[in-house]
Structure formats: structure tokens, C-alpha cells
Amino acid sequence: MKTTKSPAAATANHERERRARAAIAAALFCAFALYIAWHASHESQTRPIDELPMSTARGDDTSTPNVNADTPDLIKRGEYLTRVGDCAACHTADPGRPFAGGLPISTPFGKIYTPNITPDPATGIGQWSDTDFVRALHEGIGKGGEQFYPAFPYVEFSRMTEQDVHAIRAYLNTLAPVHYTPPANELRFPFNQRWLMIVWNLFNFNEGRFVPDPKQSAEFNRGAYLVEGLAHCEECHTPRNFMQGLKTTGRFSGATQAGWQAYNITPDRTSGIGNWSDDVLIAYLSTGVAAGHAYAAGPMADVVQHSTQYLTHEDLRSIVAYLRALPPVSGGVTRPRDAWGTPAVDDVTALRGTAITTDNGLQLFVANCASCHHWTGAGVGASAPGAYPSLIHNSVAGAPSADNLAMVILHGVRRQTKDSDVLMPAFGDALSNQQVAAISNYVTKRFGNPQATLTANEVAALRAQPQ
Ligand code: HEC
Ligand code: HEC
Ligand code: HEC
After folding, report:
1. N or C end: fewer C-beta atoms under 10 angstroms in the chain?
2. Which residues partner with 113 through β-bridges?
3. SS3 state at 230
4. Of 236, 405, 414, best ligand 2 pocket probe by most atoms within 8 Å of the beta carbon
5. Residue whose CA is at the smallest distance from ligand 1 atom 7
6. What percent of the chain has pLDDT over 70?
7. What ranges do the domains of the chain cover?
């Protein structure tokens, strides 16, 4: 019997062929990747991957009284660690549904929505065993064996001791279950193929617990355990390679996060934070204010608000000890970003009698900013908590790029801590890109780094960044 192919069948055949070709191409790519990875792993090790017995790998963990059962101590410790890991920041989209997920994380490949990690059995992780949970944080693999995307910082969480992971689970178990299913991810092909992360992991992920360096102090090791692990500072502060993995060179030398520059925090004296004292760094992490240096805005304001403000003084000291000991990375700048600017003395008098135009930076500054930051730029209320800060000797005005300055003007500053409730209004709706550029250029010229200029088009690109 002879059959003629219908057009639909022909299309289906075509589709099958296209898929087969795509599968072969993917298989070849994987084989190639495996080959490269094998070679890479037989070259020098850049990071330790060996697991040591838990007792030695734990770092300075003296604050752990009893971690054998779900005791109040374990739960309390879990709550503390959950804050260090900033789990709430990513897993809370609506403050009325804490930890229930649904927050879109923008990646260059599309949007990933965070899952619900409350103990709800149907939509959360109520049915996960402790082993499932440990595997998720240590290996980046889900309950059903699926590969996670590295928007979930398992690359860092993998360094955490199993004990600490159990403490976090014990705390999450005490949360109110929220019945809520977050939206599906919006990722383009081929990035919607989770198994591709096996390839990504080969290049960018060294599964394994933190190994203390016996040559360093207990304080340094505790700091390294926190910064490289649970606190995942590198997610924002370390530059990325073309696969979006963290680079192993120039670590902590600065990177861009959702339009914001997460600055160089190596101890380099001009490009990093080498000229900050220990106490100033501790103040920045616990309040968001490093008077005479910097204020935490954007993603760093969230880190301070949800995470670092809750850290114990010992843990903050350890973090600082670790940051101080990093290899300094020079960004090639000649003057620290917090060492620019002098007060404007006669700009305002010079304005008298000039025509009002809509894109004069000085006029716009006086109209929109001077009520709080003073027309001299010196701020109001000195450095008391909640004061309006000086724009002179401010890391955002003095940075080599004015990106954060424009982001601060567009989105304002919001940061709640134990000491203060900080609010600078957002000007994104009130000012055009041209006007934001004009104010920014006035601020950097007057109070900051005059080489950091912006065009209206650059402001438009920053405005388009999803927050
Ligand atoms: C930077 C954002 C971010 C932070 C911080 C973060 N997560 Fe997540 N988490 C994600 C994303 C995104 C996913 C989903 C990954 C995927 O679908 O591939 C995820 C997935 C998970 C999952 C898997 C849930 C499931 O249903 O598959 C668990 C469990 C989890 N996170 C726990 C935690 C814990 C505990 C912390 C704090 C120690 C934490 N996360 C911190 C972004 C984050
Ligand atoms: C979610 C991204 C993100 C994470 C995670 C993060 N940072 Fe930041 N950090 C930033 C951004 C963005 C800035 C710039 C803030 C600004 O312009 O006000 C910043 C600024 C800083 C500064 C001030 C630098 C300066 O000159 O103004 C320090 C210090 C710092 N971060 C330390 C840390 C430490 C320590 C950690 C880990 C505990 C960390 N950050 C985690 C994004 C992040
Ligand atoms: C209603 C008062 C108010 C107005 C108006 C205002 N600011 Fe602010 N500004 C603040 C406060 C409050 C902070 C945050 C202080 C803190 O972080 O503790 C701030 C912070 C800043 C910072 C530092 C951000 C950082 O990350 O270091 C810059 C730069 C800045 N403002 C520029 C401007 C400019 C430019 C304008 C005008 C477009 C403006 N501000 C208008 C109150 C104001």
C-alpha cells in the first residue's frame, strides 16, 4: 500500500530531524566540554576541593552549643545562618509571604523565579528530606534530581558544613507554611535545558566543603568560611567569565549587578577599601554607613538590611580580617573613590539672574537635591544616623563610573536597620534621562570624580535594568 505524506507529517518529520541535529550538536559540545574540563582539572588547583573531617573544616564555630537535635539552640543558630545567607532576600517577593519565593531574578539568559522554601508540603519544601535539602545546598541538585541554575548561589553554599545546613533546615521548618506556587521561569532555548548546567558546573563549580588554611588565624578562617560560603559576597563583587561563572582571578575586584557597580573590595589602597579602618568597615556592614567613605544603596542596602546588620561583632571582625588579607587588585585608578571633592562655595550665588532651563545640572541639583544634601554638597546633620550625607568624599560620587550615582538618582535609597530608617526619594519618574545625566555630571564634576560623566543614552540603559 502506498501512502502520501500529509504536510503535517512532513513538518513533524522536519521537527524530529531538527531536534536530532540539536541533540547531536549538544552531545558533541558536552564531549568537548568534558575533554576541556578533564584537562583543566589535571592542571593546577585554584581552589581547594578536598573534604576534610567536619571538625577541622568548620572554621571557628565556637558559638554552637548543641547541634544534635532540633533544639531551640539549633533553630536559633539556623535563624542566624539564614540571615547570613540572605535567603529571605531572594526567596521573598511579597513581604506578606516570607520565604514563599516568586521573586524574578534577571539573568542574561532570561528570568528565573525563586521557589517557595516554606514547609508547605504541596508548593514548598515540606516533603523534602534533610538529605534532599543538603544535596540542594551542597550540590545544586533538586529533589527530583534536576540541576539548579547558579542564580541560586550553591557555588558558595557548597562550602558550608553539613551541620550549618541542618541548622538552616531546622529553622525553615519552623516557618509558617505558605501555599503559593511561583510563576514558571522565562528562559530562552537552550538555557531552559537544566541539564546544560552539568556542563556549566564542570567549568565553574568545585563541589566541596570549606577547608581552613592552617597557616592563617582562626579569625581569618571564620571570615573566609562566611565570605566565600554562606554570605556569598562574590556573587556580586567578583567579575564573571563569558559563561557567567565567577572568575578565579581578580576576585573581589568589582562587578556589575543589575546596573549597579559592586565595587572593588580588595585591600588595594586606591582601587579598593585599603584606606578604610576596621571599625569603619564594620560600621558599613552593620549600619550601611561608613562616614566619610560610603553609604550602602541598591543591592548592598538589601544585603545590609536583611543580612549583615544581624551579624555578631565577632563574625563582622572575621569578615574584615579576611577582606584585609585578600590580594589587592588595582583597577588602575589614581585616587580612591572616597577621596574626591570639595564643598561648592559660590555656585549658588553664580546662579542669580541666570535663565531657568530644564537641563542645567546646577539648577536641577539646587531644585531637587540641595534641600537634603545642601547646595555646598556637604550634607545636613553631619554623620548622625539618618542624616543627609555629604556628597564630598562619597564613594558613589568619586567612583570611576557614575553608574551608581545615576541609579541612586533613579531609584533613591531605602534601607532599614536597627539604628535608622533611611530614605532618599526616587527621582526616576520626575526626571528625564537628560536631566539625570545633567545632575550626575554636575555632582561628579563638583563633588566627585570629574572623569565620570554620563550621557542621556547611558542613563536610559541603566533605567532599563530590571531591579
Ligand atoms: C541570590 C538569590 C538566592 C539566595 C540568596 C538564596 N537562594 Fe535559594 N534559590 C534561588 C533560586 C533562583 C532558586 C531556583 C534555582 C532553579 O530553579 O534552578 C533557588 C532554589 C532554592 C532551593 C530549591 C527549592 C526547590 O523547590 O527546588 C532551596 C531549598 C533553596 N533555594 C534554599 C535557599 C536557602 C536555605 C538560602 C539561604 C541559605 C537560599 N536559598 C538563598 C535563589 C537564591
Ligand atoms: C547582591 C549584591 C551584593 C552582595 C551579595 C554583596 N554586595 Fe557589597 N556592594 C554591592 C553594591 C551594588 C555596592 C555599591 C553600593 C552603593 O553604591 O551604595 C556594594 C558595596 C560594598 C562595599 C562598599 C564599597 C564602597 O567603596 O562603597 C563594601 C565594603 C561591600 N559592598 C562589602 C560586601 C561584603 C563584605 C559582602 C558579603 C557579606 C557583600 N558586599 C555582598 C553589592 C553586593
Ligand atoms: C529628601 C532628602 C533627599 C533628597 C531630596 C535627595 N537625597 Fe540623596 N540621600 C538622602 C539620604 C537619606 C541618603 C542615604 C543616606 C544613607 O545611606 O545613610 C542619600 C544618599 C545619596 C547618595 C549616596 C548614595 C550612596 O550609595 O553612597 C548620593 C550620591 C545622593 N544621595 C545624591 C542625591 C542627588 C543627586 C539628589 C538629587 C537628585 C538627591 N540625592 C536628593 C536624602 C536625599
Report:
1. N
2. 104
3. helix
4. 236
5. 152
6. 84
7. 48-204, 218-324, 347-463
